Amino acid sequence: MTPPPAVSRFSSESTWPFSLRTAELAVCRDFLATQKSEPRILRVFGASGTGKSFLVRELMVQTAATHRKGGVGVYIDVPPGELEASAILDKLDSLLSMPSRTSRDAPSFVSRKAARAWSSAKSGRSAKRVSYLYGACRELVAQIPLVGPFIKALLPESAPVKMAIGDDSVSLRFLMKRSKSNEVFLAIDNIQFLPFATRETLTAAFGDAGPHLRLLLVERVYDQPRVDWLPNVPHAEVMDVDLEDATLDEVTILVRDALPQEDDFKDIAATVFRRSHGNLKSVWFQLQLIASRREDQGALPTSYEDVILTLPALDQAVLRFIVFTVGGLTIASLASLLHASDFRVQPDVVTGTITDLAALGLLVVNSDNADRVRVEHELVAQVVSETTPEDEKLELRTQAVAALNAVLSSGATPSEEAVLYDRLLGIVTEVELTQNPALLSHVVKFVQIQSDRERYGYLSSIFRDSVCWDVLNELPETTIRSMLDSVQKSALFDFGLLATTRLRRSGGLHTALASLYEAKYLVQLFRYDDAESTLARVPDSKEKRAVSFNIMLNLAHDEEAANIATKVYEEITDSSGTEHDYLILRNSVHLFGPADARTLVETSVVGFESLGRRFGVASALNNLGVIELSDGAIATARDRFTASRQQFDDLGSTEVYQPLVNLSAIELLDGNTQRAERLLSAARDVAPRSLLQDNAMFRMNAIALEVFGSVDLRQSVVDDMRKVVIEARQTRDIRFADVAAWFADCLQVALVGGDVAANPASQRVAEIRNSGRVAIEVFIPKKVGTTRIDIPFVLSPQWRY
């Protein structure tokens, strides 16, 4: 039988021979195919171009051929953009909605039975009817003369039915539930791009995995340390595979299999290896070009550069436009931008050009609707950058700014609006902003969009961008307030002080606002005297009262603070309150007994909800959990903390560490020290390092866990606790410092077998514990040597923002 032409092997990944990594493939396949009733996690690491994705895709293909009836295999590639990466759970929903067969191009496999189960789970019986009607309409559209097939191609293959309850993680929980009785293969490629909130959502769902889960995690390793993500899947076995660049011998094998008709495959392999350095992405691209050019009797190209430089002028312009300015947008948005630029390219021409560039392996068109464009590999961007003159780069940037301005001014589509604003802010200069009011208005609108979404981490990064930084005096007060607020909620207090100093020294319209936020940042840094001096420059307002209230809390002026909280509650009973009123009520958690505290904090929850402030709701739920825990309602407290954690996760907020700390306390009360340690470690990983008091709290709680879980007490533990006392006193939080000092003294006494009751700080701690007010610590009895002590674990109520 005559072998097929060599070029046919390069039509798609499905036609490539799997010549390398056969030993690794066999090991991985055996590991995942075990008959043991336990989850399996396979992690694949390697630099870009080492064949990680190719290995995992082949693994999925071979798995699909042997999986049991009803099995599910889903492959998700995480894109690099935060906005796009956060939508991977929507992608999971889409993949589960339609039965599919696997190939290396599309390695997911979903049986009809599994697809029906998912449709039933998410939408009830109506999903089947909706899918049928949608499919019928889609086929009818295809009958429209000329444009029908084109429209059909742009429509999704299945009806975009969303979960009625609006919970993106339901699809993941469906898989975890299914893994208890059916095989579930879930491959997540490029985990290094997973946003924090998405990673936390995945981690929470994996905690309920069944024994038939097979989780494949692929990480592209850069020069910096690995993400090394290993979610906590109960009873799971883990195997790691590290891939390196191909050797000359391996490239030779690959060339022989890919070009079986070529007699000089060794010479080709040597050339390819020299130009690729063993990078398989580069190897395959070179082989594709060699095969196609030899058929055409053309010259031998050996790199991306050859094909890019031979592109028509329009193709090169589109490719450069994507690389330098606005990659990651949809085809429709790119068409609008290119039409608005001086290129004046018609939409159908843009679509055709992108299709051609994708066929050459330079671009990838992905997303649920197969319409989002990015470069196929970073090597493409590198070559384009190296081969483009500097003056052309500047001209392209100018063209992109003008096109983005024109498209946004005319009204962008809602799904692309935020991305377009983001791209504009990434390339515009402060000179252009100050000279063009229309551009500046786009910045104002984008900041408002991010503020409404409460994306504080992202918004604070925008604030730190030199473009925004240099036009602060040109921005309205509402925009400045949003930026300063995002800095506060991201715990970037030192940078916040720089920003407020700049605003005050400019002598512009934002002086009073700058002084107010400067005081807020100083409070977070425990510089109370400086904060009070700064507040003196601020006119009286509810916001100023809230800052003063927070100072009272740390200085233990509890009676005075309780009077203010009571007054605020009385003020808002007959009329709606402000965000700052509800902040005071939320922060008053430990000033009252459980019943009164619950009334005040529940009022703050309702108030934050009425204002649409999800951050406030999440933090108030956390404080409600502290009240329930103090009142002995542990199950209710756990529910409150879990709800708070979920909402902080949804916001992508680092404040998620607070409910994590409090959930750790509950596990400690249940005697599950290992679970408590994991939760405390997770909290410490995400907590902002700028929070001095919380850093001391973490160290103290870690010592508490160590003492609780150990048989013997070591002198080094006592010494470490003494260092925590020093840190606690630096915060000037009197209650925290007193409890820390008492615990250190107790440990010292227990070390020598003395009497804890003689501890001079015992009376102060006894007053705290017997005050009848909500406790913000839990105390667990433990016999240390011959001495019985109560080990304090400090909770994490929200009181700052």
Brief rundown of the structure:
This protein is an alpha/beta fold and 801 residues long.
Descriptors:
single chain; 801 residues; alpha/beta; six-stranded mixed β-sheet; two-stranded antiparallel sheet; 39 helices; globular
Give an account of the 3D structure.
The radius of gyration is 30 Å and the shape is globular. Helices cover 60% and strands 7% of the residues. The strands form 3 sheets. A 6-stranded mixed beta sheet has the order 3-2-4-5-1-6, sandwiched between helices. The model is unreliable at 1-7, 124-130, 161-166 and 297-302 (pLDDT under 50). The relative contact order is 0.06. Helix 6 packs antiparallel against helix 7 and helix 35 (673-686) packs antiparallel against helix 36 (692-709).
